[in-house]
Design a protein that fits this description.
The structure holds 3 protein chains of 3 kinds. By secondary structure, chain A is mainly α. Helix content of chain A is 71%, strand content 1%. Chain B is flat and about 80 Å long. Classes of the chains: A mainly alpha, B mainly alpha, C alpha/beta.
């Protein structure tokens, strides 16, 4: 029995294969959106509203005559973009604060942990609503709101891992050799928290995107006419009787995107757990 | 036991403080000068001027921040929630009956989630590896991937529009079915997963093997030995889920038009009705804290190790 | 000679692996136990002794399964018994005491109730009567302040006290067979002696046969009537206890006895048996102990390396499986 690299294990994992393929399709749509559909996603055409799926409009048109398929495909850009933005908004402050809490003086640890705990005691949705109430509805607000919601999780994760690693012998060795705190952080701590971070990010980022989509659905995030999948559902209830495809398409797209990231996340967790990396040869 | 209770209560103090600060901060969106300009287009000029005056009065917009905060806390302590910016009606009136509706929805959804999630999860663990297990796990994964608003719309589409089992605009208790079912189904997914893994872990433990060695029947084993121990992990999750249930309820209310505080909050934010927004978020957050406290208490009652301060 | 309480013949219990191969934890074990007897089943970790015990009780869980063999309790074929019948037998006719005392008790149930459960389940007693019997039992297992402790939860007990509860549960219904799987290994030495004496006493009082699984030869010397030594899934020697220690027949037994550190005896080095237990996922075509055997027959034609030695028994029922004790046609 010999260990195989995480990449190989990932490629063999069934969940990863399915999830990865789906996600790759979404990425492709995000990159090649204009090439995939001739229709302008925000061009209004009231003469052709509420058309069912057909040869001209593959997924029909919505209440303003816009081509649904085109909007879905362009929506993939928003999905990926929001995903990256919320990841940055949550992970960067989260990791920095978590590191600071882990390697800094005790009072700093207490302060940061205290704030994280209080933030975590808020139900997620209420926290976001509060932020939107303060800053006013917009895409930027949604990203900030979702980002703030995600920060405490990263803080807790990083802090926990760092505190555990600090006890490790090799860190003591580095300290004995005179390395500064930031050198230790860079060389010893960061590489070792990479795995749990990646797994955590893979689970939490889709949830953040979902939250942003929910805000857009409520009219509090991305504003129409942007073809973001959540925003496309703002009028959905009214459309159900007349043009259900305009609702089903973005709904299904969201489900597929989240489902594939969940699969991938499961696979990543299985793979990065050191015990499962040993495969029989 | 008393000591545990006191400690838990003490822990809620910073949280409540955080809630007060956060809801207070909503005021920050009010520009101190051109207040009435915010409402142009929504309210008539007269109404806008009145609203502006009311806001200045209530929030003491010309005073420094610390004084404003003290004033805010003082008002809350006296139960004064102010008037709606839009309707000028007392906020308490508007929220009262809606709050009850939200509680109804949340409670119904909780029942659905617990029955479905626990039932499915425990069954899957008991018959591990069977098709039942596989089905439950897949459903659980799928359920976790559907956001509330999508699931709600889907439910309306399937059950109201296509199948016509439920009228689209139901009334009375019938209108509770679809929203409660939707919310409950979504929250059941993580519950099923945790119940399953908790049960599997318990079923593999030493004392279950020892209980089998005692000659316990399978039924007695499951109900008296396995279940109580597996429930400990589940109760923790249910406690955590109340938070997401509450948040999910807000969204479900908008999807189904259920007249609760969630629907109110979203409208209020869009209309920049600060007093209502503040009040709703305050009440929502305090409810969450209160429920968590109750859950922790229940946990202490169930687990004898905590009762005696061992945990 | 009366009929044996427990008779095990050619027991094979294998554990299926994901790659298709099976770990043969128990690979052909024969045991016999009579009423009132104490048989010690000895071996190091991985010898298969615990799995043997669990197999007798029918408690082997997936991916393990009994592949072959005959298990008879008082003449009744356990492998043909229905699950309901096994449930009726367990706890009442055959009982088990486990290695980790506190982990073997239900954490959220009072210990008195856990003992009383036996009377309610198997004898149909009322809760009141069962609780009274439970307190009596706690007294019999020398638990101080039994009436009060019956209301305790497992985490409030020490390891020794928890094992007393385990013993109480096991002997409650005076079973014909008591299996103790390393019952004192996790406990202090002083408590060990107390509990072993207690178990012996209780078994003698009710004529219960005791199958004691252990790796500790010291315990064996104190307690056992007969000893069966296991290695890599098989019994390599069986003998009455004095005969075993005086004249071990199998090189492995010799090694085990030699490696006992005797207090008061100074030695130059601690003696151990070099090497480690072989992997159990392949069938054996030679003596399993051969790689570590100090007495193996050398030479290319050596049977030690080409054939599993057969079991050879002497007149007293003792026996061993070793090429040193038998010629190639199976004669001693």
């Amino acid at each position: 029995m010999k260990p195989i690299s995480p990449w190989q294990a990932l490629l063999r994992h069934r969940s990863a294969q399915v999830g990865g393929t789906l996600l790759a399709l979404i990425m492709l749509a995000a990159l090649a959106a204009p090439a995939m559909s001739a229709w302008d996603p925000i061009a209004v055409d009231t003469a052709h509203r509420l058309l069912p799926p057909g040869t001209e409009h593959w997924l029909g048109t919505d209440e303003l005559g816009r081509d649904v398929f085109s909007r879905i495909v362009h929506g993939a850009r928003w999905f990926v973009g929001i995903g990256l933005a919320t990841l940055a908004a949550s992970a960067v402050p989260g990791i920095v604060l978590g590191l600071a809490a882990g390697i800094g003086p005790r009072w700093l640890n207490l302060l940061i942990s205290g704030i994280a705990d209080v933030l975590l005691s808020f139900p997620y949705v209420l926290l976001m609503l509060a932020v939107v109430a303060i800053l006013g509805p917009s895409l930027g607000t949604a990203i900030i709101a979702v980002g703030i919601g995600g920060v405490p999780g990263y803080i807790r994760l990083v802090r926990g891992e760092v505190l555990a690693l600090r006890q490790a012998e090799f860190v003591e060795a580095l300290q004995a050799l005179g390395a500064s705190r930031w050198q230790i952080a860079r060389r010893a701590l960061l590489p070792n928290i990479a795995s749990p971070l990646v797994v955590y990010a893979s689970f939490v980022t889709p949830l953040s995107v979902l939250a942003a989509a929910a805000l857009s659905f409520l009219g509090l995030g991305v504003q129409p006419p942007a073809p973001e999948w959540g925003a496309m559902l703002v009028n959905a209830r009214n459309l159900l009787l007349t043009a259900w495809w305009a609702t089903a398409a973005p709904g299904f797209a969201i489900f597929l995107a989240i489902f594939s990231t969940n699969l991938l996340g499961n696979a990543l967790r299985d793979v990065l757990d050191p015990r499962s990396r040993w495969a029989a040869t | 036991m008393i000591a545990y209770l006191l400690r838990r209560l003490a822990a809620t103090v910073p949280v409540v403080l955080g809630i007060l600060l956060a809801t207070f901060a909503i005021q920050a969106a009010i520009p101190t000068d051109a207040v009435s300009a915010m409402f142009q287009g929504q309210l008539s000029d007269n109404e806008a001027a009145e609203a502006a005056a009311m806001l200045r009065e209530r929030y003491k917009l010309d005073r420094p921040w610390p004084e404003r905060f003290a004033h805010y806390v003082h008002q809350l302590a006296h139960g004064d929630l102010g008037e709606s910016v839009r309707t000028r009606e007392p906020v308490a009136d508007e929220i009262g009956w809606r709050y009850l509706n939200t509680l109804k929805l949340t409670a119904a959804a909780l029942v659905v989630a617990v029955l479905l999630g626990l039932g499915l999860g425990l069954l899957a663990a008991w018959r591990r590896g069977s098709w039942l297990d596989l089905a439950a796990t897949s459903l659980s994964l799928a359920g976790a991937s559907i956001p509330g608003f999508v699931a709600g719309l889907l439910m309306v589409l399937v059950f109201a529009v296509w199948l016509r089992w439920v009228p689209v605009l139901a009334d009375g208790w019938r209108s509770l079915i679809l929203p409660a079912l939707t919310l409950g189904l979504i929250e059941a997914a993580p519950l099923a997963r945790v119940a399953r893994s908790a049960m599997i872990e318990v079923l593999g433990s030493d004392f279950i093997r020892a209980a089998r060695a005692k000659g316990m029947t399978e039924w007695a084993l499951l109900t008296r030995h396995a279940l109580p121990n597996a429930l400990l992990a589940v109760v923790t999750l249910v406690g955590l889920q109340v938070g997401s249930l509450l948040g999910g309820a807000f969204i479900i209310e908008v999807v189904f038009g259920w007249p609760g505080i969630g629907e109110l909050a979203v409208q209020a934010i869009q209309w920049r009705d600060f007093t209502i927004t503040q009040a709703v978020i305050l009440i929502g957050a305090l409810t969450y804290v209160a429920v968590n406290l109750v859950v922790d208490l229940m946990y202490a009652l169930i687990d004898p190790r905590i009762e005696l301060g061992a945990a | 000679m009366t009929a044996p309480v427990l008779e095990v013949r050619n027991l094979r219990t294998w554990f299926d692996q994901p790659d298709g191969r099976a770990v043969r934890a128990v690979d052909g074990v024969d045991l016999k136990l009579h009423a009132g007897e104490v048989l010690a089943l000895v071996g190091e970790s991985g010898s298969g002794k615990s799995v043997t015990a669990l197999s007798v009780m029918g408690l082997v869980a997936r991916p393990g399964r009994i592949v072959e063999g005959n298990i008879r309790l008082d003449g009744e074929d356990l492998r043909r018994a229905t699950p309901a019948r096994l449930q009726a037998l367990r706890g009442a006719r055959m009982a088990m005491v486990f290695q980790q005392p506190r982990a073997s008790l239900n954490p959220v149930q009072r210990i008195g109730d856990q003992i009383a459960e036996q009377f309610i389940r198997h004898q149909g007693l009322s809760r009141h009567a069962a609780s009274a019997r439970a307190i009596e039992l706690l007294e019999r297992v020398e638990m101080p302040d039994p009436a009060r402790r019956a209301r305790d939860y497992p985490h409030q007990l020490s390891g020794g006290q928890a094992q007393r509860v385990g013993i109480a549960i096991a002997v409650a219904l005076r079973p014909a067979l008591l299996i103790a799987d390393e019952p004192t290994t996790a406990l202090d030495v002083t408590v060990q002696a107390q509990l072993l004496r207690l178990m012996l006493q209780l078994c003698h009082e009710s004529g219960t046969a005791l199958l004691l699984v252990t790796h500790d030869l010291g315990v064996v010397a104190q307690v056992a009537d007969r000893v069966a030594v296991m290695y890599a899934g098989r019994v390599v020697e069986q003998a009455p206890v004095t005969a075993l220690f005086d004249q071990p027949q199998h090189p492995y037994t010799e090694g085990l006895i030699a490696s006992l550190a005797v207090p008061g005896q100074r030695r130059e080095r601690l003696i151990d048996i070099p090497g480690s237990v072989p992997a159990l996922d392949q069938p054996f075509s030679a003596c399993r102990f051969e790689p570590r055997c100090a007495r193996r027959i050398e030479g290319s034609g050596s049977p030690c390396r080409h054939q599993e030695p057969p079991w050879v028994s002497g007149s007293t029922g003792a026996g061993t499986a070793c090429w040193l004790r038998t010629d190639l046609s199976g004669n001693p």
